[in-house]
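Check this.
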Amino acid sequence: MQFNSYLFLFIFLPLTLAGYFGLYRLGRGRGARLFLAGASFVFFGYGNFWYAVLLAGSVLFNWWVSAGLAGRTVTGIHKRVEERTKKPAPGRPLLVFGILANLGLLFYFKYFNFFIDNLNLVFKQDWVFSQVLLPAGISFFTFQQIAWLVDSYRQETGAYGFLDYLLFTVYFPKISMGPILLHGEFIPLLSEEKRHRPDAEYMARGLAMLAAGLFKKVILAEFFGGGVTWGYGNIASLSATDALFVMLAYSFQLYFDFSGYCDMAGGISRMFHLELPQNFNSPYKALSPVDFWKRWHMTLTRFLRTYIYFPLGGSRRGTARTYINIMIIFLVSGIWHGAAWTFIFWGLLHGLAQCLERALGGFWKGLHPAFQWMCTFLFVNVGWVFFRSESIGQGAAFLKKMGDFSNMQLNPGFIASFSMIELPAVFQEHRLLTVILVYAAALCLVLNGKNMDERVFRPSVRSAVGTAVLLVWSVLSLAGISTFIYFQF
C-alpha cells in the first residue's frame, strides 16, 4: 500500500487511528499495540499476502535469535522481561548465524536474479529460474533486524518483550522505506502514557507534515518525472542543454520524492503520537561529500557507520585501512540500494569522494563555501546520472551528451514532456518559461527551505489553511501517480 493513494488516506489511516486510540481509551493498551501491529501487516501485505507471511517469519526468527543472544527465555514473549535466565548467552556464533540468515533472505529476494544474470553472462549460459519478486521494504527491515541482533548481543535489549519488538519491527509508517530505527529511540515511547490519548497539537503537526510530504511527491516530484522519463528514453537525441536539464530534473525528482516520503512518514507517525528519527536534512545544501551523507538518508548512514565502519576499525588502524573501510561501507551502500552495477558504481564513486575529501583535509576546508557547494552539488548530480541509468554505459553516454557543446538547442519534446494540465492556460501557453520558473523555484526550495522537522510548528488559522490547500491540491492530483522511487529499495 502506498501513502499517496485514496485507499490509504481515506480508509486505512482514519480507521487505524480510530482503532488505536479507541482501544487505549477503553483501557486496552496491549490490544491497541496488537491492533497497530496487525494494521501494519495489512499495510505491508496489501496486494501480496505472502509478503506479510515473509515479514512474520522474519519477526519470529529474529526474536528467537535475539532471545538467545540476550540470554532470556522465549516463553516470556507476552510481557516485558526484567530478568535474564541463568543460562549464559551463546555469543558470537549465534549472532553470526542470525546475521547470515537475514542477509541470505535479502540476497534471495533482492539479488538472486542479478546473480543469475551475471553468471549467464560470464559463463555464456542461459540458465532460467523463476523470477523472484522483491518485497517492498525488505532492505530496510533487514538492516533494522541486524541492528537489533547486534544490540541483543551487546545485552541492550533484554528488558523488552515480544510485543515491543513486534511493533518496533513492523510499524507501518516506516516499514516500506525507512527510517531504519534503533530500539532505544522508539520502544520507550510506547510506554509513555501521554502518547496514549489523542492530542490536537500532535494531530495538527502530523497532518501538516503529511500534507507537505504529499505535495512534494504528487505535485513537485511528479512534475519533474515527466522530463526524466523523456530524457532517459531519448539519450541519443539529447543536446547538451537537454542533458543538463534532464540531470537536474532527476535530482529534483529524487529530492522531492524522498523528502516527501520522509515528511509523510514522520507526519503519520506523529498522528499516532510517536516520533521517527530525522532521515533527511536538506542534502543539497551540503558543502562536501561527507556533509551530504550526514544529510541524505541519515539513518542508513548511521547504520553503516555504527554496525560496519566502527566494527571494521573505523579510522583507528591507519590511513590505508581507513580508506579501505570507507570504500567497504560505500560498496555496501551501493549494493543495498539495488541489484545493478550502476548502484555499485554509484556507491564506489561516493566512497572515492569521501576518501579524496579526507586526503585533501584542510585544503578543502579552506576553499570558499560557494565553491565547495558548487563542486559538491555537481558531483552529487553526476552520481545521480548513474543511479538513474539502466547501465553504466548508458550513464556514460548521457554524460558524453552533456559535454557535447556542438548542439545547445533545447528539444521541444523535452518541454512537452512536463505535465501542466492542472495549471492555468497562460502557463501552458508559455511552457518553456513555466519550466524555467519551476526549476528556479525548486532550486530555491532545496537551498533555502527548512525541513518539516526543523520548522517550529504553531497551530494557527494560517497553518490550517496552508495544510488544507496542500492536501486538497495533492488529493485532486492523485490519479495515475507512480510509486515512491525508494519503494524499490
About this structure: Confidence is low (pLDDT under 50) at residues 75-87. Residues 200-233 form the longest helix (34 residues).
